[in-house]
Give the backbone structure.
Amino acid sequence: MVLQMPGLYGPRQPLPMRVLPLPGESTGSFVNRLAHANGLELWDFLQRVGQGTGSSSDVAARVAKYPQYTEMYVNGPGLEYLAMLAGQPAAVLRRALPGLAPRHRLPGDGDAVWKWPWQPPEGHLVSCCTRCAEGRGVREPAWWLLSDGWRVCARHSQWCDDSRTGPLDGLSLTKLPEVVEAHLERGRLQRQFGGSGEELFADAFQVAAEWWRTMPMVLRWVHRAWACELEDRSTRVMPLVIYPEAARLARLMLEFEQSDLRDTDARGRWLGKAEALMGSWELDVQAGKGPLLDWLHHHRLPADPEAQPADWSGRGRLPLAPGHRRLASTSGPLEQRSCLS
C-alpha cells in the first residue's frame, strides 16, 4: 500500500508515453502496460502514483509484479493521481476498467491510497484475446477482469480463460464452430430479453455443468476437449465443451418461460422435449433428469410482472418465474445468476 499527501504533492502532468485501456481490462494490467510504455518497472511506476515512498512490504512488492494473478484498487484521490499519470479523464478509466467501479473503491478521501491484494475480492483475471489487443496497438500480455473465468472471442474464434498453464493467446476454436455459434446465440438471448436472457442461459449452463460432472465421458464433450488439445476431464475444459448444449437448452427454457401454461401436462411436455434433446446428444436421460426437474420446480408458477426486482425496467426483458427470482442474482458469475445451486 502507498499513502500520498493530498493535492499539494500529486502528479502535475501525464507520463510521456500514453496507452489506452482495453474495454474490461483489469486495472493492474493497464498500469503494468503504462509503466512499461514509459520504460519503468511496475514497482517503480507505483511509487510515482503521487508523491511519497513505496511500501516497505516485500510481500506488496512481489504481488505487484504479477498483474496476471492480482488486481490493483485505489481510493478517490488515488484514481485522480492515476488518471493524471495516464493522461486520461478519470471517467474514461472508470468506464473501461471494471476494477475502478464504485463498489471496488477504497475508502478515504484524504491521502491517495492504492492496494494490490493477492487475489481480487471478486471476478477472474482472464487473458485478453491477443488479436483483439494487437488491433488496438497492444503488443504485450493484457488481462480482463471478468465475472467468469473465461470468455469467447467470436471475432477471432478464440477461447480465453484464467488458466496460467497454457499459452496466453488462448485456445483456437477453429475446429469447434459450434462453440462460437453458441456464444453468438447467448448474445442474441441477451439482446432480445436483457438480463432475463442471460439468467436463463445461466440456468441452462448450470444444468449442462451438472450433466458433465455426472457423465464427463460423453463423446461429443471428449471430442471437443481433444480438438483443443485439453485433457477431457479437466475442470478447465468443462465450460468450453458444454457451451453448445447450454445455449440450445437456454432457448428451450425460454420457450417454457414465455408460456403461461405451467400445469402438470405443460411441464411434462417440456420435460419430454428436454429429454429428447438429451437423447440426441447421447446423454443418459435418467442420470441427467434431476437438474431439469429442479429447474421446473423453481419455474412451476408463471411470472408476476408486478413483483419484478427494482432494477427491472420491462424494456426487452422477460418476466421470470417467482421461484427463479427468489434464488438468482441479477449480476455476478453464472452460478450466482442461476436459480440452481
